[in-house]
Structures are given as structure tokens and as C-alpha cells.
Specification:
alpha/beta, Lyase, Ornithine Decarboxylase, Chain A, domain 1, TIM Barrel, 2 domains, nine-stranded mixed β-sheet, eight-stranded parallel beta barrel, 12 helices, elongated
């Protein structure tokens, strides 16, 4: 987080003290750095400049409309998995010709919307889906561009709950089923097969699984003898959540892709999410209580698992840091927990944490991807606010849900 870091013991977001923001916004709230978002997107683009890919930001990782508008300004397209995400991307001004629609369970109405909006590709994940798209397209008297999502039976060294490329995962068609589909595609007169798509999971930091995937796609293309206009390599590139995490070398990945497409007339599509927004945000939260049980200090926050689901859902690690660090005093071993009536409502255990007291504020780091997008009203708690910092300015980009509107709906 180059733009979110401590300065003289005070955590700052760009040129603003994070502590000062608590005077304007009720905690907990998400706080984003616009400069970090821009840095991430342009650095990703720069790494793959020679292959000139279409970058379709994964909207499921963060669907804030203001952030999507900023990404659109940078030239981003969108990868969507629902009608809601498609409509948000379009509302943000992203061209339908830069939108790919993925997902295993697209409904009739969602497919009808995508066809009507003329998205670049609908990546089909079953034969039945292709038949349904053909039926709707025939009814609408149009030809629809599709991609086929290939399940390469490759898993990466990542959390099994975010692994999507294994043979037992629900995503895509197997290699053999994909071959058969390609042979029979001409029977579906209202479809144009323009792309092949793969996505093997998330938070991947090793190039080896990507190299295997490219090898399988290459083999598949030679087998089918189809010159796919688009090769969608998905996303999944990981970020560093702690000092122990390594990150994927994008330049090495780019070199691998250049060799792969050297003699192919095709355009690469990427669907990055986490690598674009993951480190752009912190969740600022207030310490409600501190209590000691046995050898552990429980620090009870006003943020709960409904505000940040990843630790409870994936056992994901998010480092917590104080907004104002006490250099002289150390609290010792602490466990940060939320107010939700679940034992799984806990964030992280940390040792030798800076001395804090009830009423102080801390930040949960690297929450820009799958943070806000996984929030809920569990325990009938309002959805919290999101703010955006740019230089020395800050603004509300999504207001906090009122308790009244929550209760009345």
C-alpha cells in the first residue's frame, strides 16, 4: 500500500490522516485511495503493454459505481457475473463491447439482457446454457457472440474455496466436452463462437499454474483448428496480504503470453480484480471494548463479519494497524473480534500490538477486493459507508444505510 502508510506514527491515506476522517464519517467505514487504484491499473497495463490485452475488471471484487467510473476513465472493461453487475458496469459508462459475462448459472432474463445489450462475449459454462442462448437469440432474431469456458483441471496453491479450475469444481466444460461442443457449434445457428475462456482461481502468486493453463489452451486450439478471436485468461493474480506473501511477477507472465500468441491472430482478455483493488482500501473501525480472558486480550471492534466476511469465510489474513501508534507501550497478544453473535466473527490474532484503549481506532488493511462486495445485513446491521481519498480531499462514494430504511424494508 504505497499510498496508505504510517507517517510519524499516524496512518495516512494519501495526504490525509486516517484519524481525521473519523470526525467526518461514522465507523466502521471503507476508505479507498484513488492514487493507489490508478497506480495498480496502470502498472498492470504497463506489464502487458506489448500484448495489448483487453482488461476487463472483475466487478464481483468491488462494484462501487464511483470506482467503476474511475476504472472506465483508465480504459477498463468489465467482467460481470450477474444482471446487477452488468447494469452497474453500463451505468459507469463502460462500453458493452468491453464487457464479458461469466458465471455458471445465468438465468433466462440475465441472458436476454446480455444479448439485448450486445456484450462482447457471453462465456458459456454448459451445453444447456449454449442451447438457451441460441433459443433466445433466435427469438430476438440476432446472432450472439460467445466464448467457451474450458475447465483445464488445473488447481493452484491457493485456498480451496477460491479454486475454480479443478475437475471437481462447478465451473466450465471439461476438455473433452469442450472439444465435442466445438464440433457441434454449427448446429446452433444463432451463435458465433469467438472466444475461449479459462479461470482457475484467485490469489495465485506462482506462474507455474498459469503456464500449465496456457499449454492446455494451445493444445486445445491445435486440436480444434479454430482461430479464436479472443483468448480470455481470466484473473486470479494475487497480492501481498502480509510480509510473508510473495507476489506474481507480471513481467514474467507477460513474456510467457507473448510467446504463446506470437503466431496467433487473437486478442488476450484479462479479468483482474484483487490485483487492481485489493490494496486500495482500509476498513476503519473503533475499539468498543477491551477484555482479558486467560492469556489473551480481546479487542472488540464496531466492525463485524457482516462488514468484512473474508476472515470468517476463507480464514483470510488481514493485518490490523492502529491509526495512531504508541511507540513506547505494547499491549501484547491480542485477538481482534467483532460484535456479531458468532464465534467465527473474528479477524486476526496479533502479537506485540501497540498499546490501545477503548475508543481508539484501528484499520483493517487490504480490504479493497471482496470486502464491501461481500457485506450483508446479518444481525440486522446497516451496510456501512465507503469514502474515497484523492490527495488532500475526501468524499463519500456510498452513504451508510440508515437503520430506519433497513428496518422498514
Amino acid at each position: 500500500m504505497h499510498y496508505i502508510k504510517p507517517r510519524k506514527n499516524n496512518l495516512c491515506v494519501e495526504n490525509i490522516s486516517a484519524l481525521s476522517l473519523t470526525k467526518y464519517y461514522k465507523t466502521p467505514f471503507y476508505c479507498y485511495s484513488l492514487s493507489q487504484l490508478k497506480d495498480n491499473f496502470y502498472n498492470f497495463s504497463k506489464a502487458f503493454k506489448k500484448t495489448n490485452p483487453l482488461i476487463c475488471f472483475s466487478v464481483k471484487s468491488n462494484s462501487n459505481i464511483v470506482l467503476l467510473k474511475e476504472l472506465k476513465k483508465m480504459g477498463s472493461g468489465a467482467d460481470v457475473v450477474s444482471a446487477g453487475e452488468l447494469l452497474k458496469a453500463l451505468k459507469a459508462g463502460i462500453s458493452s463491447k468491453k464487457i464479458v459475462f461469466s458465471g455458471v448459472g445465468k438465468t433466462y432474463s440475465e441472458l436476454e439482457l446480455a444479448i439485448r445489450k450486445k456484450v462482447l462475449l457471453i462465456n458459456i459454462e454448459s451445453e444447456s446454457e449454449a442451447v438457451l442462448i441460441n433459443k433466445i437469440s433466435k427469438k430476438m432474431n440476432v446472432k450472439t457472440c460467445i466464448g467457451i469456458r474450458l475447465n483445464p483441471n488445473i488447481t493452484a496453491d491457493t485456498n480451496k474455496k477460491i479454486s475454480t479450475g479443478g475437475k471437481d469444481d462447478k465451473f466450465g466444460l471439461s476438455y473433452n466436452a469442450s472439444l465435442i461442443f466445438c464440433k457441434q457449434i454449427n448446429t446452433l445457428k444463432n451463435l458465433k463462437l469467438k472466444g475461449i475462456s479459462v479461470h482457475i482461481g484467485s490469489q495465485i502468486t506462482d506462474i507455474k499454474p498459469f503456464k500449465k493453463v496456457i499449454g492446455i489452451i494451445d493444445k486445445f486450439i491445435k486440436k480444434t483448428k479454430i482461430n479464436f478471436e479472443f483468448i480470455d485468461l481470466g484473473g486470479g493474480m494475487g497480492i501481498s496480504y502480509s510480509e510473508k506473501n510473495k507476489t506474481l511477477n507480471l513481467n514474467n507472465y507477460a513474456s510467457l503470453i507473448r510467446k504463446f500468441i506470437k503466431n496467433k491472430k487473437t486478442q488476450i482478455i484479462f479479468e483482474p480484480g484483487r490485483i487492481i483493488t485489493g490494496n486500495t482500501s482500509i476498513l476503519i473501525t473503533k475499539i468498543t471494548y477491551i477484555k482479558k480472558n486467560n492469556n489473551k486480550n480481546f479487542i472488540i471492534l464496531d466492525a463485524g463479519m457482516n462488514d468484512l466476511m473474508r476472515p470468517a469465510l476463507y480464514n483470510a489474513y488481514h493485518k490490523i494497524i492502529p491509526l495512531k501508534k504508541n511507540k513506547k507501550n505494547i499491549l501484547g497478544k491480542v485477538e481482534f473480534v467483532g460484535p456479531i453473535c458468532e464465534s467465527s466473527d473474528k479477524f486476526v490474532n496479533q502479537n506485540n500490538f501497540s498499546k490501545v484503549k477503548e475508543g481508539d481506532y484501528v484499520a483493517i488493511t487490504n480490504v479493497g477486493a471482496y470486502g464491501m462486495s461481500l457485506t450483508s445485513n446479518y444481525n440486522t446491521r446497516p451496510i456501512i459507508a465507503e469514502i474515497l481519498v484523492s490527495g488532500s480531499k475526501h468524499k463519500l462514494i456510498k452513504k451508510r444505510q440508515s437503520l430506519e430504511s433497513l428496518i422498514n424494508n
